[in-house]
Specification:
With about 325 residues, the chain is α/β, with parallel strands linked by helices. About 50% of the residues lie in helices and about 10% in strands. The chain folds into 2 domains: about 140 residues, Rossmann fold, CATH 3.40.50; about 150 residues, 3-Layer(aba) Sandwich (Rossmann fold).
């Protein structure tokens, strides 16, 4: 998206002022300006930063960061920021040009630093590492064929879908906030500790919930391949007609392969997502006779309700998944 010259000149004025005053806000104890790129990350930052930061989240709830187009207002917010916190791993494909447009030169924290990322080859094979899953070679080949056309060689950016990874996000965010606002170190560490306690409690609860479902019944279909980390963490198999990005499109052959796999593997539940077009999943549900099990949230929080926070989203997704699976196998 191109930003008009007049708007860029206005932004340049703010950049000049930011360069002189950006760090003084942190030193004076005034709230520091922090920009997070999308809603899931923004909620994590808010939990840790609290009232000590002025937080701007660029891609809001129920909005798709894969296809987002930055605005002049976004460039202005970045230009005025003391700290920019991003997911990285190619999730924000528009970020480089936004930073360039805003001439941002303050710190950038990549929240996924230190996380063991999943690439397409790992995503295809990690299920074989679970001893409880019995898979035939032809089933594995079907899944490999299904994904290969979409994102060969890509790395899955949806690392927040594992609560174990969320702890690394929290650590990176906390260190980033302290680096620009050392006087707030005690507050940030205390908030982070409280948040990690909640994450640990939910992680234990989810393991107990998932274990209530037979391992061979944990197979579901979602609109795009956003749940690889949740799959690896909690031993649930996810299948999708398109790859890591919602920009991908499924061919007729992709859909036909997935429908065959649903029937061959006795997959019992399909789900829609809050940011995805529902028509393809509705078609798959009709052609397989499987009912849609509910709405899942991966790339964006909900504007309202239980999934409007990161921890609420994770709990909602597990509740929705297991509720549908229990109905199918009972």
């Amino acid at each position: 998206m191109k930003i008009k010259r007049s708007k860029l000149l206005a932004i340049a004025f703010f950049i000049t002022m930011t360069n002189f005053t950006g760090l003084s806000h942190a030193r004076s104890g005034e709230p520091v300006n922090v920009v997070a790129t999308f809603s899931v990350l923004g909620d994590m930052v808010r939990q840790i930063g609290g009232n000590r930061i002025n937080l701007t989240t660029l891609v809001g709830a129920d909005s798709d960061a894969h296809v987002y187009q930055p605005t002049p207002a976004d460039a202005q917010a970045v230009a005025e920021a003391n700290l920019l916190i991003i997911n990285g791993v190619g999730f924000e494909g528009w970020l480089e040009r936004l930073i360039k447009a805003s001439n941002y030169n303050n710190p950038v924290i990549t929240a996924t630093n230190g996380i063991a990322l999943i690439n397409v080859e790992e995503d295809e094979s990690h299920h074989d590492e679970h001893e409880d899953h019995e898979k035939h070679e032809d089933e594995h080949d079907n899944k490999k064929d299904l994904h290969a056309d979409h994102h060969h060689g890509d790395t899955d950016p949806h690392a927040w879908m594992s609560l174990a990874n969320a702890k690394i996000y929290v650590n990176n965010i906390t260190n980033g906030l302290i680096s620009i606002d050392p006087k707030g170190e005690g507050i940030y560490k205390r908030n982070a500790k409280d948040y990690l306690t909640k994450i640990n409690a939910l992680e234990k609860q989810i393991y107990n919930q998932v274990n209530s479902i037979p391992s061979n019944k944990r197979k579901v279909v979602t609109p795009h391949d956003a749940f690889g980390y949740l799959s690896a963490a909690y031993n649930i198999e996810f299948f999708a007609p398109v790859g890591f990005s919602t920009e991908s499109e499924a061919s007729a052959g992709d859909v036909a392969k997935l429908i065959r796999q649903i029937k061959n593997d006795d997959i019992s539940a399909v789900f829609i997502e809050n940011i995805s077009d529902h028509r393809l999943i509705s078609q798959i549900a009709r052609e397989t006779g499987i009912r849609i099990g509910g709405t899942l949230y991966a790339d964006a929080l909900a504007k309202h309700g239980p999934a409007s926070t990161y921890l609420g989203m994770m709990q909602h997704n597990i509740n929705t998944l297991l509720s549908a699976l229990k109905k199918q196998y009972k």
